Structure formats: structure tokens, C-alpha cells
């Protein structure tokens, strides 16, 4: 099942599977989301929940009991229900069930709300704790922006002037090694060497948005004011780049395994809800 929403300038299509955005086109029929060719990467824009990144040994503990979770959690591989739809918006919901409780012992509802507004697609995450205890979780986005021209024709422009320090991954875990992106007037030219060691993980950023430039002109802007962390990723020779606003990231090698003590984790009180929003703007 797929759902399409539209306004006068954009059309967005979302799968019920994973509530995953797989197409965003302008009224010239130009596609801005990666097609999902499995030769490079078979996803388009998965939601990362209830963890972001990789756990040490894919394992964590709650009250000293061990649980297993794959990289980026399970929500992206589950069927969501379409609960509301208008011409330019759609709401998808995933509720905990017997299958999720084996991997993650908390009752929850996860909603993804897609809304088109002028040349912008807003994507809102709502997490509701329906458990009888506090609930630790992370959540993140993973939209892959299609780059139809040569990769080197693109650049990133960060909103603010700041030291763009990122952590390197080692065996999919966050290491203490850091590097800093070199910029000229907040602009970073793209090349595949940047991603030789997998994703660039920015634990914190002052910038609330990042604009992809195509031949020095604005192409797509991703705004992530609500999110403290950001991942940027592509695969060698792939014609896309992922701009990933995150709450949380992979474990460190010396992580204790206790999910409540995991670096970057969010803790949601009983019957409370969490809201965050990011947007993809065609510029």
C-alpha cells in the first residue's frame, strides 16, 4: 500500500511499509528522493526507532535482562497504519505488539506525520509512551536525496559558521576519533573520499539547516532545528546523499549496555509524548 499527498508545487508518496517516503516530485515531475536501487542501497528514507545506529554486539539491557536490536531498530521494517489523510497530509501509526515487545519491552505508539506546505515537505515524529514505566528511546531520519548530476558538482552549505567536528565510526560504533570538515564560507564541496570511513556523525551542531548546492546553486535544503545530532552518509559512487537528523547515535566501544545510560538516549515519562520535526525544502 502506498499513499500520495500533493499540493500545487509538490507530490509526495509514502509506503505503509515503514511509513517510508519514497518519492518527492515537483510539478515538473523532477524526483528528489533516491530511487532505492539495491545495487547501492535499497531504502529511500527509513525512520530509525527505537535506536539510531548500532548497539555494541547488537545487544542492550533493561533491568539486567538482555535484548537484541538490529542497527537502527525495527520500525523501518514494520507495517504502519494510515490513520488520517487529507489532500496535502497523511498520518501513519505503529503500535507496539507481541513481536516488538520481545525486542523492546515497552508499550508505545510511533506516528509519522507528513505535510506539504508550499515547496516544503514537513515530517513530524510523535512517540507516545504507553508503558507503566519510563521508556528510553532514540529516533532519527535517514532521507536519501537524489543527486542526478556528477557527485562533485554538489556541495553542502551549513547555516552557521562553526567548527564542523564529527566523530568517526569504527566497526559501526562511535569512536573518540574526530575530524573537522574544511569549509569556505560554510561550504563543503562533495567527494566520495569524505565517506571512506562510513557516515560523518556530528554529535552537536549549531546549524539548524543544511543546503545541498548543485553547481553552486541551492538545490535542496534540509531543516532540523528540533534535532541535536546529524549524520551524513552515502556509498561509494552512489548518486545520492543522506542528510540524517538524529536524537542519539551508535554505542561507544566502552558502553555499559544499559539502555537508560546510553549516550544520547531520550527518556520519556509514562503517558507522555515526544514531538520533533524536520523538513525537506526544494529550493
TrEMBL record:
Cross-referenced InterPro entries: Aldose_1/G6P_1-epimerase, Gal_mutarotase_sf_dom, GH-type_carb-bd, LacX
Domain of life: Bacteria
Keywords, ordered alphabetically: Calcium
CDD domains cross-referenced by the UniProt entry: Aldose_epim_lacX
Cofactor: Ca(2+)
PANTHER family associated with the record: APOSPORY-ASSOCIATED PROTEIN C-RELATED (PTHR11122), GLUCOSE-6-PHOSPHATE 1-EPIMERASE (PTHR11122:SF13)
Subunit structure: Monomer.
Protein name (database record): Aldose 1-epimerase family protein
Amino acid at each position: 500500500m502506498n499513499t500520495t499527498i500533493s499540493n500545487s508545487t509538490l507530490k509526495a508518496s509514502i509506503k505503509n511499509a515503514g511509513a517510508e517516503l519514497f518519492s518527492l516530485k515537483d510539478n515538473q515531475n523532477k524526483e528528489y528522493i533516491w530511487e532505492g536501487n539495491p545495487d547501492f542501497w535499497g531504502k529511500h528514507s527509513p525512520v530509525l526507532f527505537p535506536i539510531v545506529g548500532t548497539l555494541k554486539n547488537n545487544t542492550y539491557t533493561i533491568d539486567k535482562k538482555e535484548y537484541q536490536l538490529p542497527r537502527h531498530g525495527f520500525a523501518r521494517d514494520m507495517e504502519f497504519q494510515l490513520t488520517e489523510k487529507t489532500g496535502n497530509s497523511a498520518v501513519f501509526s505503529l503500535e507496539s505488539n507481541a513481536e516488538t515487545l520481545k525486542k523492546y519491552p515497552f508499550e508505545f505508539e510511533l506516528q509519522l506525520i507528513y505535510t506539504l506546505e508550499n515547496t516544503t515537505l514537513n515530517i513530524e515524529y510523535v512517540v507516545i509512551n504507553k508503558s507503566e514505566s519510563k521508556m528510553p528511546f532514540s529516533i532519527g531520519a535517514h532521507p536519501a536525496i537524489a543527486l542526478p548530476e556528477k557527485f562533485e558538482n554538489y556541495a553542502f552549505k551549513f547555516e552557521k559558521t562553526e567548527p564542523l567536528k564529527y566523530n568517526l565510526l569504527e566497526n559501526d560504533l562511535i569512536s573518540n576519533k574526530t575530524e573537522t570538515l574544511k569549509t569556505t564560507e560554510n561550504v563543503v564541496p562533495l567527494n566520495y573520499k569524505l565517506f571512506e570511513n562510513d557516515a560523518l556523525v556530528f554529535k552537536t551542531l549549531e546549524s539548524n539547516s543544511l543546503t545541498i548546492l548543485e553547481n553552486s546553486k541551492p538545490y535542496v535544503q534540509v531543516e532540523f532545528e528540533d534535532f541535536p545530532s546529524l549524520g551524513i552518509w552515502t556509498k561509494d559512487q552512489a548518486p545520492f546523499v543522506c542528510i540524517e537528523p538524529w536524537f542519539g547515535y551508535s554505542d561507544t566501544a566502552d558502553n555499559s549496555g544499559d539502555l537508560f545510560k546510553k549516550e544520547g538516549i531520550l527518556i520519556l515519562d509514562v503517558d507522555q509524548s515526544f514531538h520533533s520535526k524536520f523538513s525537506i525544502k526544494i529550493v
